[in-house]
Design a protein that fits this description.
This protein has 631 residues and is of the alpha+beta class. It is built from 18 helices and 27 strands. Strands 1, 8, 9, 10, 11, 12, 15, 20 and 23 form a 9-stranded mixed β-sheet that branches. It has a 4-stranded antiparallel β-sheet with strand order 4-5-7-6, covered by helices on one side. Helix 11 packs antiparallel against helix 13 and helix 17 packs antiparallel against helix 18.
Length: 631
C-alpha cells in the first residue's frame, strides 16, 4: 500500500509539472494573442531594391548593407564612435599569453524560426568563407586566425584552423602570434562574418540562391523579411519584427527589444513621389533617393535638408586583365551596343587591359569632379581606401588623412593619350563593353560619363545594361519552382570573371585598411583555389587577374607585421600607392549616404558603417498609421 501511495504521489507530481509547463506555455501564447496592438507600422524608403540577402555578398553594392544589417545580428557591432560593442556576444575573455579569445554568446536571442543562435552557427559561417572551393572576398578578415589562410589555400583542413567549439554558446579563437587582438575585434563587426545556419544555406538547389526569398530566409537580427516583390506594379518589401530577438518569448513584451512591428518599403514610386510622400507625412524615413530627384539639387542643398555622410565605399571600375579586347568591327559593335551581347564570340584582339599604361590612361581620362556632381551623393575619390577607414584602430586617425599620394579629380587627356602611345596602343583599333546592372540608374549614369571620356581617347565603348532574370531553380524539398526570385546576372557575371570592365561599389568589409586592400593581392583574394591532378592547389588571383609581385609583397609584409600597427599602416599606404600607379581597379567616387528622418520618429541610431538601427525607433501616434486591413 505504501508503495502504491508513493507511486501515486510521484505520478501526481509529474502530472503537476507537465500541467505547470503547459500552463506556462498557454499563458505565454495567451499573452501574445492578447497583444491586439503589436506596434508601429513605419513606411520608409531605405534604399533601392536588392536581390540577394547573403551578408557575405552584401559588399558589392553599398546599398545592400543597409538592409542586410537589419536582418542579421553580429557578434559585435561598430558604434558610431568607431568602437566594437557586444551584440550576440554576452562576454569575452582574452588570454594575452596565448593571443586567444573565448567568446560566450547570449542565451536570449534566436533565429526568426525560434531556433537558438549557437556557436556552431558562427563556426559554419566562417568555415564557409574559408572553404578552399568557394570564392568570398571577405575571407581575409579571418586570416589573423591560426591556419585560416592555409585552409583557404587548401593546405590544411578546416579542423586545423584555430577555432574551437567549446559548447553551444562558447567558442575559442586562437590568433596568430603577431596578430593584433584590438584590430581583430574591429574586424568581427563586419556583417560578412555574421553567423549563418548550415541547414538553411545547404537546403537550396544552388547555394547562391538560399538568401533570395522570404520563404528560404531565416534571420538572426531585429527583423525578418516578411514579404518581397519585384513585380513592377507592387514592388516592395516588408520587414517584420523578429519576435525571438534578444527577448524571453514567454515573459517579455513583444516590443521589448524591437519597437517597430513592421517596416514597409514601396519601390513603385519615383524619386519625386518619394519626396512628396515624405513631405506629406506618408513616409517617415528616406535612406536614399533615386537619381531622377537627387540631381535637382546640389550636395550642399541636400545637406541642408537632411544628413549627408561618407559611406565606407568607393565606386570603382574593375578591369579583366585576361580579357581579349576585340578589334573594332562596325557591325559587331552595333549589335553589342543595341543588345548588350556578350563579347565571347571572337578572340581576334589583344589583352590590352593587362598593360598598366592602358589602365592608367583610362583613369587619367576621367573627370571625377564632374561625375561626382552628376551623381550628387559622392565626391571625387582620392584613392581606393574610402574615407572613414582607420589608420590603426580608431576613427580619430584616418587612413585618408595620412595619404600622401592622391589621384587627380579632373581629366588629363593629353597625359592619357601619351601613355597609350608609349604602350603602343591605338585606341581606335579596339572595342569593349562596360557591364552594368540595368536596374541601377546611378551605375548607368556613371557608365555613360565614363564611356564618353574613353571614346574621347578613341576607344569604341559599349554599355551592356544587364537585366536581372527570373530564377528558375526549384526548391529541394518540394521540387517546385521558387517564385518571385530574381538573379542579379550582372553581379554573378562579375564574380565569375565574365566581363571586360565592370563597376562595383568597393565597400570596406571593416574600417581596417588591410581588409580593403588585401583582396587585390594573390593569396588574399578569397577566391577559390584551383585544384590540379586532385592534389595540387594553385592560389587564385583577384577576380581582375591582377598579380603584382611588389603589391603581393607589401600585403604579405603587412599581414606578418600586425603587432606594430604604425609600421603596418606605412606598408598599407605603400600598397595603395602601387595600386594607384598600376590601376588594376580605378577608384572613381567616394560614395556618400543621405538620410531624411521625420520629426515624428525618434530613437533611430546608426552604426559606424552608416547603416540605420531601428530597434528603438518610435513613431509618434503610430496607431493612426496602422493599415486598415490590419486593424
Amino acid at each position: 500500500m505504501k508503495k502504491l501511495i508513493a507511486l501515486a504521489l510521484c505520478l501526481i507530481m509529474i502530472l503537476s509539472a507537465f500541467a505547470g509547463c503547459a500552463s506556462s506555455k498557454e499563458d505565454g501564447q495567451k499573452k501574445e494573442e492578447e497583444e491586439v496592438d503589436p506596434g508601429a507600422y513605419i513606411r520608409m524608403y531605405i534604399t533601392e531594391p536588392i536581390y540577394n540577402f547573403d551578408p557575405a555578398l552584401a559588399y558589392g553594392n553599398e546599398a545592400a548593407l543597409r538592409i542586410v544589417s537589419l536582418l542579421y545580428d553580429n557578434l559585435f557591432v561598430l558604434g558610431e564612435n568607431g568602437k566594437p560593442e557586444k551584440s550576440l556576444v554576452k562576454n569575452y575573455d582574452i588570454d594575452k599569453k596565448t593571443n586567444s579569445i573565448t567568446l560566450t554568446l547570449r542565451s536570449d536571442t534566436y533565429w526568426s524560426d525560434g531556433s537558438p543562435v549557437s556557436a556552431n552557427d558562427v563556426f559554419f559561417a566562417w568555415e564557409r568563407l574559408l572553404d578552399s572551393t568557394k570564392s568570398f572576398d571577405a575571407a581575409a578578415l579571418l586570416y589573423d586566425v591560426k591556419n585560416a589562410k592555409a585552409a583557404k589555400e587548401g593546405d590544411v583542413s578546416i579542423e586545423d584552423v584555430g577555432i574551437q567549439l567549446l559548447n553551444q554558446t562558447q567558442l575559442e579563437i586562437q590568433l596568430n602570434e603577431n596578430a593584433s587582438m584590438d584590430e581583430f575585434l574591429v574586424k568581427l563587426t563586419s556583417y560578412a562574418l555574421a553567423p549563418l545556419r548550415s541547414d538553411i544555406v545547404r537546403r537550396a538547389e544552388k547555394e547562391i540562391d538560399w538568401a533570395k526569398s522570404p520563404t528560404s530566409l531565416v534571420t538572426s537580427g531585429a527583423f525578418r523579411l516578411r514579404t518581397l516583390s519585384y513585380d513592377p506594379a507592387e514592388a516592395g518589401l516588408t520587414l517584420e519584427r523578429n519576435s525571438y530577438y534578444q527577448r524571453d518569448f514567454m515573459n517579455d513584451a513583444p516590443d521589448k527589444s524591437v519597437k517597430p512591428y513592421r517596416i514597409i518599403v514601396d519601390y513603385t514610386m519615383s524619386g519625386e513621389e518619394i519626396l512628396a510622400a515624405y513631405e506629406k507625412g506618408e513616409i517617415f524615413f528616406v535612406g536614399d533617393l533615386p537619381l531622377d530627384v537627387r540631381s535637382t539639387k546640389s550636395l550642399e542643398d541636400w545637406a541642408e535638408m537632411g544628413e549627408v555622410k561618407d559611406a565606407l565605399s568607393t565606386h570603382s571600375y574593375v578591369f579583366n586583365h585576361n580579357a581579349v579586347v576585340r578589334y573594332y568591327d562596325a557591325s559587331a559593335f552595333a549589335k553589342l551596343s543595341a543588345y548588350g551581347e556578350d563579347l565571347k564570340e571572337g578572340t581576334d584582339g589583344d589583352k590590352i587591359f593587362a598593360k598598366a599604361e592602358v589602365r592608367k590612361a583610362l583613369s587619367l581620362a576621367l573627370d571625377r569632379d564632374a561625375i561626382a556632381k552628376a551623381v550628387v551623393f559622392a565626391e571625387a575619390a582620392k584613392g581606393l581606401v574610402p574615407n572613414g577607414v582607420f589608420e590603426t584602430t580608431n576613427k580619430k586617425d584616418l587612413f585618408s588623412d595620412n595619404r600622401t599620394n592622391a589621384i587627380a579629380s579632373t581629366a588629363d587627356m593629353n597625359a592619357a593619350k601619351s601613355l597609350l602611345s608609349s604602350a603602343g596602343v591605338d585606341a581606335g583599333k579596339y572595342m569593349f563593353a562596360i557591364s552594368v546592372p540595368a536596374y541601377d540608374e546611378v551605375y548607368l549614369k556613371i557608365a555613360e560619363m565614363v564611356k564618353a571620356s574613353w571614346e574621347e581617347l578613341g576607344f569604341h565603348v559599349a554599355i551592356c545594361a544587364i537585366e536581372n532574370i527570373d530564377n528558375t531553380d526549384k526548391a529541394v524539398s518540394t521540387n517546385a519552382p521558387i517564385l518571385g526570385v530574381k538573379d542579379d546576372i550582372s553581379y554573378e557575371n562579375y564574380k565569375a570573371g565574365k566581363f571586360e570592365v565592370a563597376p562595383i561599389d568597393y565597400t570596406a568589409f571593416s574600417p581596417v585598411a588591410f581588409s580593403v586592400l588585401a583582396p587585390l593581392a594573390k593569396g588574399y583574394s578569397g577566391n577559390a583555389s584551383i585544384e590540379e591532378h586532385g592534389t595540387t592547389f594553385f592560389i587564385a588571383n583577384h577576380i581582375s587577374g591582377y598579380d603584382s609581385e611588389a603589391y603581393n609583397a607589401k600585403i604579405e609584409a603587412a599581414q606578418t607585421s600586425t603587432g606594430d600597427l604604425e609600421a603596418r599602416a606605412k606598408l598599407l599606404h605603400e600598397a595603395e600607392d602601387i595600386l594607384l600607379e598600376e590601376m588594376p581597379i580605378i577608384p572613381i567616387l567616394q560614395n556618400k549616404s543621405f538620410t531624411l528622418e521625420s520629426k515624428e520618429l525618434s530613437g533611430t541610431d546608426y552604426c559606424y558603417y552608416g547603416s540605420p538601427i531601428f530597434t528603438k525607433t518610435k513613431l509618434k501616434n503610430y496607431e493612426d498609421y496602422i493599415p486598415a486591413e490590419e486593424e
